[in-house]
Specification:
The structure is a homodimer of 463-residue chains. Chain A starts with 14 loop residues before the first helix and ends with a strand. In chain A, helix 6 packs antiparallel against helix 7 and helix 9 runs antiparallel to helix 10. The first copy, chain A, has a domain of 98 residues: 3-Layer(aba) Sandwich (Rossmann fold), CATH 3.40.50. Chain A has 463 residues and is α+β, with helices and mostly antiparallel strands. In chain A, the strands form 4 sheets. Chain A has a 9-stranded mixed sheet with strand order 1-5-6-12-11-10-7-9-8. Chain A contains 14 helices and 19 strands. At the A-B interface, helix 1, strand 1, strand 3, strand 4 and helix 3 of A face helix 1, strand 1, strand 3, strand 4 and helix 3 of B. Chains A, B: Keywords: Aminoacyl-tRNA synthetase, ATP-binding, Cytoplasm, Ligase, Nucleotide-binding, Protein biosynthesis. Chains A, B: One of its GO terms (molecular function) is histidine-tRNA ligase activity. Chains A, B: This is Histidine--tRNA ligase.
Chain lengths: 463, 463
């Protein structure tokens, strides 16, 4: 095979990049578990008809076909959407299906985290991949779900992302809004195509306010005054409950107050207030946050990396009431999803975060000659039995070459078994810190590397 | 949506099953890292032409198609195998591609582990899935790879699987053979279609010796005497180097000794000898092990769970010399792959292993009334800050109901904030072990659950 080239949109990391990604995933998982979320995985595929329930995403779905079916099953009618399988494009739709499928065996409210790859056949660009890892948390109730979870879930994400600050991940800002506020306000204005209006407002960052105002008039039949009011609402943001008063005042000035608006404002206010207390400075109410997906019914969330806002949201989600329903029972939920690949890709490409080495190995055991390999293996086994990651030199090359082997990989210590002494004299084992050059006698049954050298660490780049 | 049903061949676990799977994966990963293997992930897709290089597997490949391409790109010729993408069916082919793609940025010999899902469009049956998790280790060299890795890699797997014994995973037996032995012997007999003979011998367990003898004669043109010799070779097995002598004697009796056979026997003997020393009783030379894949060139391995032999191999692999080659450079390797889903599925379905609970949560903090939820949240935060997984009751129901919430999930402790006392009297916090009923005063800044209750544990079922 000729030397292969990368596939655009399908990111892969070198071993040291994978160390960074693994660290991010472990910190996320640890935080999720501290908050009582149970880990699950779902299969990568769903029936195509389920994936297509959300019209907007259909163009992104990858459909699967068994190669051997080419002239077989497919021709015989297996093209029906309920028989075909597609790769999931998020973890929310599969989770909703999992909940319905296992409802009788789960305890509600059910809190789960899920860290898996998803696939979208979009055009690849900076921060947008065709295959990427998401880390989701959701809680779903049976029949009902108390509002307080809409406050707690973004705070869990704030804590998870905050726990990555010390390895060099920038500060995050979680932008929150509430669908009831938007819907109540639009309906109060007399605009009843709420989803249509949201879809236009969602384009604000991309095309600017003038173009959105035009679209609102052209597509949603808004008057110039209604369009202006929508843009004014979208212009409101702030980290304290003063935001609530400003929305209320704006609605009043247009005579657009509704009960739904008041419900939404009470919820949004409670979220902003709790967040200001529990994670000061992290959560900001931003009334232009719309979220494209139409299944959200309450709080919605987006998250930016401070200083990297143009990357787009790295953690989004919201409250949904009708996503998981089997007709008889409904399982309302709220959740957020971190775009791990988008985050890690930026951490690596912007040189924000680095791994101290790309191998787990703390010690390389040298081999004096192939006849004594078994002794090096025994040293390695003794060190490993105490949890120290060890490799044994691949060949009994000159010691300088073996040290270079360690150096190339960032392995900090090289161990010389005593049996490796010249003239076959059995001396004590020695271990060399190849960074300082310091070499001293050591006993494989007790020697331990300094804690910071035991495993690769993830640190701010340049540290 | 109607209540969905499982998709045959696409296994999913309930949360407590996932705890078992996670534990298995963590033990494997820990062992691999102790031995200096670096973790990588590759994308799930490869160009179809790369996946089809091994003819045997082509019928199993899932091909991807972007839904929006239906009448677009595909019709314009994107059906070419080098443009189409398929899901990988193992982790060896993607790893070989990763090595070639990144050869200039990797240090050789390169040891990596890789734990990911793979997909095969086979007919699902017990232990055979269409989507499953594999855990692979491989080491590849640039140009050359010393034989000792063929000894070490199965021993790493023996250690990894052995580390699972104490949670209830049965003993394993690693069956080893060497392609050079088989090839040398067959050629010595005068049978030159070595791959053909191997393919027939590989059917021994399925169709029995008589049928294999017939096939050898009908398909490979063997004489009855040659067929008999092949079956006699396949009948040899044993855990010590006596096996080597028996093969040599058999070859001698047929006048089938060759240099290649001797090379293979020396390798196989070294493996059996080292294994008997380093992992007594685990490795058995079994001359009938053939492995279907034709890229193996030296040692080959299969692994059975003792008492569950009919499940088939749960960990297989071998030495390959030409899998990764860009024409100019070749990267010979050796590796093994654990079928994690097959193993976990058996552990769960046979009731061998169980998790003490399906949630990470060690403590449920009760909520006396919604006005005091913030105090329960504060208790939870204090406990979490010391690494204790905590959940807060979803609603301020009667305490009996909140205790039942914990009980249903296997959460061992329920915490009652002092503020929850009757008549709003602020007493000390109390924590109740709901298994024993014992309840005592506790301080959220210092109290810690017993180590064995901190996280869900994986234990032999029935313990």
């Amino acid at each position: 095979m000729a030397r292969p080239t990368p596939l655009s949109g399908f990111p892969e990391w070198l071993p040291d990049g994978r160390v960074v990604e693994q660290h991010v995933l472990e910190v996320l998982r640890h935080t999720f578990e501290l908050h009582g979320f149970a880990g699950i995985e779902t299969r990568a595929v769903e029936p195509l008809d389920q994936l297509l329930r959300k019209g907007e995403t259909s163009k992104e779905v990858y459909v699967l076909r068994r190669l051997q079916d080419e002239d077989g099953d497919q021709a015989r009618g297996d093209q029906r959407p309920d028989k075909q399988l597609g790769l999931h494009f998020d973890l929310t739709v599969p989770f909703a299906r999992y909940v319905l499928e296992n409802a009788g065996r789960l305890a509600f409210p059910f809190k789960r985290y899920q860290i898996q790859k998803v696939w979208r056949g979009e055009r690849p660009q900076d921060g947008r991949f065709r295959e990427f890892v998401q880390a989701d948390i959701d809680v779903v109730g049976a029949g009902e779900l108390p509002y307080h979870y809409e406050v707690e879930l973004p705070l869990v994400m704030a804590e998870a992302l905050g726990a990555l600050r010390d390895v060099g991940v920038p500060e995050v800002r979680i932008l929150v809004n509430n669908r009831k506020v938007a819907e109540g306000f639009y309906r109060g204005l007399g605009l009843d195509d709420v989803e249509g209006v949201l879809r236009q407002v969602d384009k604000l960052d991309k095309i600017g306010p003038d173009a959105v105002a035009e679209l609102l008039q052209a597509e949603q039949g808004a008057t110039p005054e209604q369009a202006k009011a929508c843009l004014e609402l979208a212009g409101i943001s702030g980290a304290d409950t003063g935001v609530i008063d400003r929305v209320r005042a704006l609605a009043g000035s247009y005579g657009a107050g509704t009960d739904l608006l008041e419900t939404g404002l009470a919820e949004l206010g409670a979220l902003v207030e709790a967040a200001a207390r529990r994670a000061p400075g992290v959560v900001v109410a931003d009334l232009k946050i719309a979220r494209g997906l139409d299944y959200y019914t309450g709080s919605v969330y987006e998250t930016v990396l401070v200083g990297h806002e143009q990357l787009g949201s790295i953690c989004s989600g919201g409250r949904y009431d009708t996503l998981a329903s089997d007709g008889k029972n409904t399982y309302p939920g709220v959740g957020l999803s971190i775009g791990v690949s988008r985050l890690v890709s930026r951490l690596l490409s912007a040189g924000l975060v680095t791994a101290t080495r790309g191998v787990p190995t703390a010690v390389l055991v040298a081999v004096a000659d192939e006849e004594h390999r078994a002794q090096s293996d025994a040293v390695a086994a003794a060190l490993r039995s105490r949890g120290i990651p060890v490799d044994v030199a691949p060949a009994a090359a000159k010691f300088g070459k073996q040290i270079k082997f360690a150096d190339r990989r960032g392995i900090p210590f090289v161990w010389f078994p005593g049996q490796a002494g010249e003239d076959d004299v059995v001396g004590p084992d020695q271990v060399k810190d190849i960074r300082s050059g310091e070499q001293k006698d050591a006993d494989a049954s007790v020697w331990t590397p300094p804690e910071q050298d035991l495993r690769p660490r993830v640190v701010p780049a340049g540290e």
